[in-house]
Give the backbone structure.
Amino acid sequence: MTTSANPTMLALEKCAKGGPSLASWNEGPAKQSILNFVVGVTTTGSPQFVKPEERVAVFDNDGTLWTEQPMYFQLAFVFDRLKVLAPQHPEWRDRPLFSAVLEGDMKTVAAGGLRGLLELATITHAGMTTDDFSKIVEEWITSARHPKFNRPYTELIFQPMLELLAYLRANGFKTFIVSGGGIEFMRVFADKVYGIPPEQVIGSTIVTKFEMLAGVPVLTRLPELNFMDDNVGKPVAINMHIGRRPIAAFGNSDGDLQMLQWTAAGTGSRFGLLVHHTDSEREYAYERSPLGNLDKALTEAQAKGWTVVDMKRDWNRIYPFETCK
Amino acid sequence: MTTSANPTMLALEKCAKGGPSLASWNEGPAKQSILNFVVGVTTTGSPQFVKPEERVAVFDNDGTLWTEQPMYFQLAFVFDRLKVLAPQHPEWRDRPLFSAVLEGDMKTVAAGGLRGLLELATITHAGMTTDDFSKIVEEWITSARHPKFNRPYTELIFQPMLELLAYLRANGFKTFIVSGGGIEFMRVFADKVYGIPPEQVIGSTIVTKFEMLAGVPVLTRLPELNFMDDNVGKPVAINMHIGRRPIAAFGNSDGDLQMLQWTAAGTGSRFGLLVHHTDSEREYAYERSPLGNLDKALTEAQAKGWTVVDMKRDWNRIYPFETCK
């Protein structure tokens, strides 16, 4: 992974001269709540002050750091991968779910539910070493294009969130991804596009097995789910990987609710934020939907005073490729 | 966790004025191999040069960073904990393994093997929240004493390894613990005694469950093993938690062999080291033994050119409480 053409940095440099700022955030309560929180925890002597090593911020990925419509980007990878592998697996034609994907019958795929998708995901993500898997993802992520924007998926990251990540890091925060997405899928690009190194990327995992192949030690990926990093899984994964309770959590759906609850329940200054997708023109508008369902978390945000970002109102720029305002 | 009385720093300051050095290492091939490796990977333009973000070093804990005799320290915690809990569990008297611990019959305990010990460990480590568990460990680790040295276990850390950790960090390395010990057990003291923060401590885990207790979100520890971070588990855990292949690995037993193999098999400059316990007077002398068995790894170290530390010969000081030479 090279950082020389780091889009995060390029995007930040383009619009925000003179250090990290929140230039793509309109003035308003959302931006103000972020500034208030950060000033509080970084001001020595303030009752809100938090020691730098305790400044842990966790970010969901799909719908929070990048777009998740018309489907989770990793799902597009699963479908593309299935098509690549299909010729070697004529038996897939007899499996309704598999043939539905191959024929583009998304209705049948959707009817298979989460369980069906997980089956497709584990099968397409397994049967190779971890090193080979990274290469496959790398190849896909640089060549695949988003159907609406006709751009690489890694360009569909949210400029305001890039600025927020940079602003938090400039204020001593350690930023982590805590996503339902595959940990080894995200690690391929997270450093390059978000400036978040592999050891700060937490996600769902499949079982891997250490073995010797012709005298060379490898980790082989098996078609078996190991850990689902969503809903109640997020606080569990945070505890396992970080071992500290975050002081700030950022999400966009009910899958992030427990992560926000866990973060908010600690002592001292705490910050919770939900991205509400309200811009059908520049991005997508949805909330109570099968994908990125935002329902209970929205209600709880209002009750608990978490910040809710109205994308249409609060962000003057959504993607790095848009012109600076 | 306070860092004001950080014994690592105190120990280092006491003997090594003027920045990190390897003062407790005698001149010889072991010390020289460390210096050669670090100079190589940090010299810009050198063929051995490694970018700072890739300078990942992994350390086993028991027998590598601190003593592991006459039994793993966490096992002493298990036994002590069992005795504390016994009055609430009269039914344990009818279970041979449990009553053996309560009666100090170590022969029967040993006959139960790893499986028996794991059962004892999961039972004594479960049934409370993660926060409560940390408090229990904190209390024990500050009050319990090692039977031979009559000192807190956290004083039985190896001064040369503290110096090595500090030396590597001063050279841009990120240092991780990768141990068979419990992740939440070690995190209580790892930052204070080794300067290794919770997010860089990797270990064995039991299952934890997110739930609401009287409206408060907690993580409850269940009496079920989740992951055993030993042998083939170590490379798997490294991949899961760090997502990068280390360039240096430090261990002392066959349980560390796969971690060393995995580290050594990467491209570019690599370093492997085994601590050989050869000092029956100042510490303990053992190798092919039930505890900290060093057999296959020692053979492979010789074949692969990994560094083997002869404690008696290579370390002029073992513990921080010893007088500086």
Observations:
- The beta strands of chain A are 56-59, 174-182, 201-213, 216-227, 248-251, 271-276, 307-310.
- Chain A is about 40% helix and 15% strand.
- Residues 29-42 of chain A form the longest helix (14 residues).
